Amino acid sequence: MHYLVLFSQLTSGFFMDHSDDESDELWDYVTRNVEKLEKDDPVQAADSKKKKQEIRPVETVKTPLSSSVEKEKQKLSSSLGLDRRTDEKLRRGQMSVEAILDLHGLSQREASPALTSFINTAYEQGKRCVLVVTGKGKNSRKQEDGEFVSSPGVLRQRVPEWLRDDPLGYLVLRFYPAKPQHGGDGAFYVLLKRKR
Questions:
Q1: Phi-psi bin for 145: left (phi > 0), alpha (psi -120 to 50), beta?
Q2: Sign of CA dihedral 67, 81, 87, 129
Q3: CA dihedral defined by 119, 128, 88, 190, rounded to 10 degrees?
Q4: 105-132: per-residue pLDDT in tens?
Q5: Which of 34, 65, 151, 190 gives 70 a disulfide partner, CB atoms 3.0 to 4.6 angstroms apart?
Q6: How many CA atoms lie within 13 A of 93 on its CB side?
Q7: Model's pTM, two decimal places?
Q8: Are 159 and 152 in contact (CB under 8 A)?
Q9: Which domains does the chain have, with CATH numbers?
């Protein structure tokens, strides 16, 4: 009986446009191999319940995360293990800065290994809060169409990427732009994980 209801629901639109003879032929074809369940047979009833339970929903297709969503995910994961009070103290510049790295005047090629070495050394020494000064990049100039124009500081853009990515990402819990007394937008407070 269940098959009849299901079949009629699925094909209700089909029968409107066809004659009764065609409908009867189709119905005979579909129900040719259908067996009726006996209510008194517990084995058949149990088997039918198992079959219903085995049906699984269609898996959703996963699409690659956009870069902004991926960055938010990294921010979220980087703050794991960090209580709200400590996070607020770091963001407000209220934690004691234990070491400072000044990257002014360095190229990307020079700054990246200097930052890696500094963070690794600070971690090995058990330091938690360090300050990385990149500069604001006001003197950074690039040539466009034959003219030099101001551009945002390259290191100011790249240091956050380096702090999130390997090899430093596993040592860094969180970082924020510094307050004006520590360099403002041209510096970052970096909170390192505790040395194990």
A1: left
A2: negative
A3: -10
A4: 888 899 999 999 999 999 999 999 999 9
A5: 65
A6: 13
A7: 0.55
A8: no
A9: 2-54 (no CATH), 81-192 (3.30.1370.110)
